[in-house]
Structures are given as structure tokens and as C-alpha cells.
Design brief:
It comes from Phreatobacter stygius. With about 200 residues, the chain is α/β, with parallel strands linked by helices. Helices cover about 30% and strands about 30% of the residues.
Length: about 200
């Protein structure tokens, strides 16, 4: 029997419309998005949204600020929603763990997506981040507050979340050429999210 981590892609694909309807459009993440956009090496910038969902509200915010977004998600149905909303931007169906776009981006965003991966898959993502990062690129992602696993629920199905220890995230970032610009654990001003903002050296 597959683990909850292995079921994530199928869960989002099966319930793509439900997830889109349930995803709030109020952007409590705006302060952190502004920090991310402020760390981009140039503007307008090319942004890679990894696990982009239905493109709202995160990608929309970046687009409305004048940036070019390429969104990647493993759910074809979510990518279809993205294409219907923002047809002038690039939307690709791909598992982030196998992502190899042959392009570099000024900003990489993995908000509420990367943390659905198991521990080893998260470790393997950092060279993938590096391979898609332009010079001085900004990287922002969310994680858990400490090493562990947590199982939530979506549509009465288990929803997996995994996290490494913060010291390991710092080491992985450093090993792959990123300096941490800002990190906060369970930010009360951002819905309790644990956030990492880094820049490629």
C-alpha cells in the first residue's frame, strides 16, 4: 500500500476543482511575496512557481507586479486551470522531483508544495533548485518548523507534510550555493507558515 506522501499527486488531481474553490484569495502571504520580489536580481523577472496549484493567488500576484511566470505542477487539471486564467504565461505538467527545464529563473517559489515531499525527496530537490537558478536568484519555500511528518486531511483523505530539521535546510542551502536571507518559524503574521528566503551566491 502506498504511503500518504505517494498519494499527494493523485489527491490533488482528483480534487483539483475542490482545491481551487477552497483556496482562499485573500493574500495574507503578500508581505513575504514582496520580500521575495524585492530580492530578485532584476525586474521584470522570470519566476518559476514550483507546485503552482491553480495560479491563484500567488502566481497572480507576481503576474500583476509585471513578472513572467512559469508554473509547474504535477496535476494536469490544475495546470489546465492556470492556462485558462493566464494563457500568456507558461504552465507545465511535471513532477517537481523530475523537473529539468533547461532554463534559469531569477526567482524560484515553492510555497505550500515542496513540504508535501518525503524527507529524501526534499533533500534531492536542492540541486534541482540550483539547476534552475540564474545568477543571484531568489528562492523562497515553506517547510515545517522541525524534523518530522504530519498528516492532515483534504476531502477526507490523508494529506502528507514532511519537514527536515532547520539546521539541515541551512546546510542543504549552503551546499547548493544559497545564502539564507530570512527565516521565520510559524510566522503569526502569515498564517503560522515557516518560511525560508534565500539567494544564490
Amino acid at each position: 500500500m502506498s504511503s500518504p506522501a505517494d498519494q499527494i499527486i493523485a489527491l490533488y488531481e482528483q480534487h483539483a476543482r475542490d482545491w481551487d474553490l477552497s483556496r482562499g484569495r485573500g493574500l495574507f502571504e503578500a508581505d513575504w511575496l514582496d520580500r521575495f520580489l524585492g530580492a530578485l536580481p532584476e525586474t521584470p523577472a522570470a519566476i518559476l512557481d514550483i507546485g503552482c496549484g491553480s495560479a491563484e493567488p500567488m502566481a497572480r500576484y507576481c503576474i500583476e507586479k509585471g513578472h513572467r511566470v512559469t508554473g509547474v505542477d504535477a496535476s494536469p487539471s490544475l495546470i489546465d486551470i492556470c492556462r485558462s486564467r493566464f494563457p500568456d504565461h507558461d504552465w507545465l505538467t511535471s513532477d517537481m522531483r523530475a523537473m529539468s527545464l533547461g532554463r534559469h529563473f531569477h526567482g524560484l517559489l515553492a510555497w505550500d508544495s515542496f513540504f508535501h515531499l518525503g524527507h529524501d525527496d526534499q533533500r534531492r530537490m536542492f540541486p534541482i533548485f540550483r539547476a534552475h537558478a540564474a545568477e543571484n536568484a531568489a528562492l523562497m519555500f515553506t517547510s515545517g518548523p522541525a524534523q518530522g511528518e504530519a498528516i492532515g486531511s483534504f476531502q477526507d483523505k490523508p494529506l502528507y507534510h514532511g519537514s527536515l530539521d532547520p539546521s539541515e535546510y541551512r546546510q542543504l542551502l549552503d551546499d547548493n550555493g544559497f545564502n539564507v536571507l530570512s527565516h521565520i518559524v510559524e510566522d503569526p503574521a502569515c498564517g503560522g507558515h515557516t518560511i525560508w528566503l534565500a539567494r544564490l551566491r
